C-alpha cells in the first residue's frame, strides 16, 4: 500500500480518545463527508507513492485549522490558496497554518515539501473547553489520559511510511517534554529535533519571522541528510 492509502484508511477509521475530563470536548471532524473528501484528495495528490517521509509532530489540531479540515496545520484558506483543493468552508485561516505554509513555500512548494515530510501531531484529535482551543498538556488529567492514545496514534502514523531515524517536534517545553518521554520509553525515533511553535512565532516574534522560517528550513535539510 502507498503512504496515501494507509493515511486515508487511518483517518477514515480514526476515533477520539475516551474518558476525557469533564468539560473537555473532542475536535472530531473526520466523519464529515466533506472532510473525508478533502483528506482523500490531499493524500492522493501528495502521497501516492511508497517513499518515506520525515514527521513533524505538533501538539493537537485547533478549531480553526485541522479541527475544520482534518489536515494538520492546514486551515480552509491554505487548502484553497496553496493546495488548490476545493472545500465547502469559508475562507478562514489560523496563525499556525499561515506560518507553516510560509515554510512550505520557502522549501519549494507543496509538491517538494510533502514528498519529503508529513505533518502530524501528538494527538490527531484536538480539544476544546468552553469553546476555546485546549492543548492536551494544559490539563494534567487530559495529558495523563491521552498518553496511551497518543502512543497508539503515533505508532499508527509511523506505519504510513514515516522515517524513524529522526523526527521534528513542533513546540519546545511542554510538547517536547511529553514527546521525549514517550520516545525515551518506546523508541519511536532515533533522534528528536525541535523547532518553536508557529503560534508563538506569529504572536510574539512576528518581526523576526523570516529568521524562524530559516530555522525550520535548516532543520528540514538536516533531517533529509540523516
Q: List low-pLDDT spans.
A: none
CATH class label: Alpha Beta
Structural class: alpha/beta
Q: How much of the residues is beta strand, in percent? A: 5-15%
In the sheet with the most strands, the strands line up as 3-2-6-7
Separate helix tally: 10
How far apart, in Å, are the first and last alpha carbons? 25 Å
User: What is the global morphology?
Assistant: globular
Full CATH superfamily name:
Uracil-DNA glycosylase-like domain
**What is CATH's topology name?**
Uracil-DNA Glycosylase, subunit E
The helicity comes to 40-55%
The CATH architecture name reads: 3-Layer(aba) Sandwich
Order of helices and strands: HEHEHHHHEEEHEHEHH
- Main sheet properties: 4 strands, parallel
Number of domains: 1
Quick one: how many beta strands? 7
The rounded Rg comes to: 16 Å
- Average pLDDT, to the nearest integer? 97
Can you give a write-up of this model?
Helix content is 48%, strand content 12%. By secondary structure, it is of the alpha/beta class. It has one domain: Uracil-DNA Glycosylase, subunit E (3-Layer(aba) Sandwich). The strands form 2 sheets. It has a 4-stranded parallel β-sheet with strand order 3-2-6-7, with helices on both faces. It has a 3-stranded antiparallel β-sheet with strand order 1-4-5. Strand 4 (126-129) and strand 5 form a beta hairpin. The two termini are 25 Å apart. The mean pLDDT is 97.
Amino acid at each position: 500500500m502507498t503512504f496515501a492509502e494507509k493515511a486515508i484508511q487511518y483517518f477514515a477509521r480514526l476515533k477520539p480518545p475516551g474518558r476525557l475530563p469533564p468539560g473537555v470536548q473532542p475536535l472530531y471532524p473526520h466523519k464529515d463527508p466533506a472532510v473525508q473528501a478533502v483528506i482523500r484528495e490531499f493524500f492522493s495528490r501528495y502521497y501516492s507513492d511508497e517513499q518515506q517521509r520525515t514527521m513533524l509532530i505538533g501538539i493537537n489540531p485547533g478549531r480553526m485549522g485541522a479541527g475544520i479540515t482534518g489536515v494538520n496545520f492546514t486551515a480552509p484558506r491554505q487548502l484553497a490558496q496553496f493546495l488548490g483543493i476545493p472545500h465547502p468552508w469559508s475562507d478562514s485561516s489560523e496563525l499556525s497554518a499561515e506560518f507553516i505554509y510560509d515554510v512550505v513555500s520557502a522549501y519549494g512548494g507543496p509538491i517538494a515539501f510533502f514528498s519529503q515530510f508529513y505533518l502530524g501531531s501528538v494527538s490527531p484529535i484536538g480539544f476544546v473547553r468552553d469553546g476555546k482551543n485546549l492543548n492536551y498538556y494544559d490539563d494534567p488529567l487530559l495529558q495523563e489520559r491521552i498518553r496511551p492514545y497518543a502512543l497508539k496514534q503515533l505508532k499508527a502514523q509511523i506505519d504510513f511510511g514515516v522515517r524513524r531515524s529522526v523526527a521534528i517536534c513542533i513546540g519546545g517545553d511542554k510538547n517536547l517534554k511529553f514527546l521525549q518521554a514517550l520516545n525515551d520509553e518506546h523508541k519511536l525515533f532515533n533522534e528528536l529535533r525541535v523547532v518553536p511553535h508557529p503560534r508563538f512565532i506569529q504572536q510574539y516574534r512576528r518581526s523576526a519571522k523570516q529568521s524562524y522560517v530559516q530555522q525550520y528550513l535548516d532543520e528540514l535539510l538536516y533531517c533529509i541528510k540523516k
